[in-house]
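W.,

You were right to be curious about this one. When I first looked at the sequence I had no strong expectations either way, so I just let the prediction run and decided to look at it fresh. Below is the sequence, 466 residues in total, followed by the output.
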Amino acid sequence: MMSTGGLALYWLRDDLRLSDNPALSYALRHHASTLCVYIEPPIDEDDPPAQVWWRREALLDLSAQLGDRLIYRVGQPRQVLEALLHTHPIEAVYWNRRYAPSDQAADSAIKAWLRGAGLRAHSSPGDLLLEPWTVRKADDTPYRVFTPFFNAARRHGLMPPSPSVTTAALSRLVKPTTSPQAAIARLPQRPWMAKLAVEAQPTRAAALEALDRFAVDLIGAYAVDRDRLAQAATSQLSPYLRFGQISPREVVARVQGLAGAEAFIRELIWRDFSYYVMYHWPDSLENNMDKRFDRMEWHHDPDILSAWRLGQTGIPMVDAGMRSLWQAGRIHNRARMIVASFLTKHLLIDWREGARWFEYTLLDADLAINRMNWQWCAGSGVDAAPYFRIFNPTAQGQRFDPQGDYVRRWVPALSALPAKWVHQPWAAPPEVLAQAGVRLGRDYPRPIVDLKAGRLRALSLWGQIK
């Protein structure tokens, strides 16, 4: 029941939507009026990560949905909140939870400060299907292996979406004296970010369109087609989920019961599992979960690392994935595994180097998911792929990009090579290379590592630490 008076403050973070927004719904139900504030953390304006572009566009879209009834500030959260408390008769502050260790600590401190000042402070479930403390083993310890976690999550039941916010309720949002649009538009933009807009639409409407397209046309074959690199067979929802423009609860509500949906829901629960691991083992964001890897002799070669980052390794499947990342801020999930295995095993470069590069270049960069997946690929993490499972990028390309269309798109220098050779140009006969206009070492790099020798070297090191 709504109270007859009182002003609430709703603090947005990674929940840039009006639907299935527990904190916003609660504020509007219990207060006569509500302020919305988004607090932008300080950004490296000289070298911002790619996701700054997406967040800028998503905030502009949300502001438009709110009729500009959004306060936008840049700074440290407590300082901004203190300033708002001085200028507005705020009685309560609400937000949706985040789960990174630093966020938990900061939120706990702010909650204690607000309550100490006599205000109500309340946090609601964040963008997960299950809170990280919900599912545990019979001995009350957390799961370390995904499949038992998945089964326990399904038995427990996933959270449904919260009630929709009505248009009448939204009318009780307070409009600030100045529009946030101009301030949001000043988020740092760099010329290279213009290329990101070619394939991306960071709006709520685009998220709903992508979900409907996936549910109607693609989900039935998802379990098989999601690994086909040249096919548009995945949901494309990851950046929308990252910024909370759509929630996983909304996604599950839309697809459950459809043929093929269980394979997709399993991937959403894998997303939850990454937050679960971060919550229960927070040091896994920076440290090997398998302590044997603390003895791994990682190589430190800036030139080799740069070649991997920019897609100049001479291994077409790796280069295609890395160039798609650099040019579009996206990389297919199968390609993510291939390039991660190549970096940590064939090149023996620390998984943390790869994780940091992904967080700089990915539009959907998510700390929990990214770090757990990198440890999974490196073999050092919870429920990790065994270290001796080393992806052969040539074989992976031949299996999941059999005609070479994915490679040709992102590595156009190889576009005229026949499918037989497009994943291994170094093995092509000279006359085939000449006919395709490919001069190895000039038009396209020679491989920076021999795949067989790199695999044997990695296995040798594994034998020393295991």
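Here's what jumped out at me. Strands lie at 7-12, 33-40, 71-74, 90-96, 120-124. And, maybe more interesting for your project: The chain is about 45% helix and 5% strand.

Coffee later to discuss?

I.
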